[in-house]
DNA sequence: CTGCAACCCTGCCCCAGGGGAAGGGTCAAG
DNA sequence: CTTGACCCTTCCCCTGGGGCAGGGTTGCAG
């Protein structure tokens, strides 16, 4: 009959772990020798190996304890469930690994490939890196918050930018960043953008506003904070559009 | 600027989680509005998504915090390490899954296929199920405790049982279980076993005794506990062998 | 304007699955 | 007879949050 330390070394767990399993009723307390030391037999070691196999599979100790008093039927059923959970966890870890790779590659999380392509187009069309980064942030948020509507919203935006005249307006918006807040070109640009927006969305609700609820507002606030010219431009455009 | 609840829903975490990240320095505390509510911007959301990607990969929060102040070089290096750890974890989970399958199949943990085959042979040779189970326990322990020596030890034992005359002795041992402790056949059997053992291992140390250290003793104690006849048989054999 | 639901705040204790330390007893070898 | 390696119990610590109490705020409906 061996001591707790030997048993622990055999099975490859700590002494503490064994004592915890006793305390939680996973492994019955064995008899003690005359000096009060726990003494274990082979069946304890076998039990402990079973417990560790389940624990390594992520089964909570309480469930392992309950399984001790289960019928063979129930036990097999439980094993199947645990196996399925394990499979799911493996898939989950692989998905996380994929996200990790994208984080490493710079575009920090799951954006559909077409969005990445679009962002590269922006750079080619000579939008500033600042603008491209803001757009990336925006799409990440939109896809995180409204994965269902994000694709449609994105397609609308990509279409808009495919039109050279409309693209010009966005480029001007981009470059307005460094103007003085009271530059008259801002008033002109606001008028032109409001006009184009009304033209493009003859109905009164452009998809950006209703679809992604307040995420664009969130982005817009951040955007505005980086340039007083942009802030004024935003205010002017809203005023134009509100005036029907 | 959005509230904590909105941010939480966007990113798919609980409010509590965000507050914990603030408390642990993972995510800087944002400014408060007039009523003391935290108000977040888009960059907070992007940061939070990054944090969650790492946390989902199992990176401890303290390490994520430290990574916030790392150079790009260090960050990429860390990502590679995390990726490797993830790969290891996936492999580990698959190994656990394999052990789980064997547990489900009855032979409760990793026994080499040849040991399983051997145990089936025992049943065919008409050893009792009780004996086969004891042998299974023994080999599980031996392979768990001394994987390096277990194979050689096992081959020795398998060889021994391949000899019909020696096998006869083990069968007699098995069936002695139900004899009275003072049955004279036990004395006879003990003598024959001691003789055969000496014959087989002309040197004085049979591999069982030195190789697997005290595991056989562990098994033997358990074995003896189940039958006073076995207990006496064991004592007699030891006495015979000790007398050179 | 008043209610009331849905938010938000802080501070506190709880969980698993142990780790580690304190403070003490036991055993075997030299 | 000491020394080192064991063992015993009890206690607090850690992570990654969950949940509750007890309070303040906001916005919308009646």
Automatic annotation (TrEMBL), chains A, B:
<dbReference type="InterPro" id="IPR047057">
    <property type="entry name" value="MerR_fam"/>
</dbReference>
<keyword id="KW-0238">DNA-binding</keyword>
<dbReference type="InterPro" id="IPR000551">
    <property type="entry name" value="MerR-type_HTH_dom"/>
</dbReference>
<dbReference type="Pfam" id="PF13411">
    <property type="entry name" value="MerR_1"/>
</dbReference>
<protein>
    <submittedName>
        <fullName>MerR family transcriptional regulator</fullName>
    </submittedName>
</protein>
<dbReference type="InterPro" id="IPR009061">
    <property type="entry name" value="DNA-bd_dom_put_sf"/>
</dbReference>
<feature type="domain" description="HTH merR-type">
    <location>
        <begin position="1"/>
        <end position="70"/>
    </location>
</feature>
């Amino acid at each position: 009959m061996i001591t707790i330390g030997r048993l622990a070394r055999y099975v490859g767990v700590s002494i503490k772990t064994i004592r915890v399993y006793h305390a939680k009723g996973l492994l019955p307390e064995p008899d003690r020798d005359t000096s009060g030391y726990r003494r274990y037999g082979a069946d304890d070691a076998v039990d402990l190996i079973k417990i560790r196999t389940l624990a390594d599979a992520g089964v909570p100790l309480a469930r392992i304890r309950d399984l001790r008093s289960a019928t063979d039927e129930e036990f097999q059923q439980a094993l199947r469930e645990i196996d399925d959970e394990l499979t799911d966890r493996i898939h989950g870890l692989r998905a996380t690994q994929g996200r990790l790779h994208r984080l490493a590659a710079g575009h920090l999380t799951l954006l559909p490939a077409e969005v990445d392509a679009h962002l590269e187009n922006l750079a080619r069309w000579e939008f500033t890196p600042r603008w491209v980064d803001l757009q990336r942030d925006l799409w990440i948020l939109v896809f995180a918050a409204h994965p269902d509507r994000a694709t449609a919203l994105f397609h609308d935006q990509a279409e808009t930018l495919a039109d050279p005249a409309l693209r010009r307006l966005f480029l001007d918006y981009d470059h307005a960043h460094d103007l003085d807040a009271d530059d008259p070109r801002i008033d002109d640009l606001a008028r032109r953008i409001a006009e184009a927006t009304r033209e493009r969305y003859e109905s009164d609700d452009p998809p950006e506003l209703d679809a992604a609820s307040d995420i664009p507002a969130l982005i817009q606030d951040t955007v505005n904070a980086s340039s007083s010219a942009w802030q004024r431009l935003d205010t002017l455009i809203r005023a134009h559009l509100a005036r029907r």
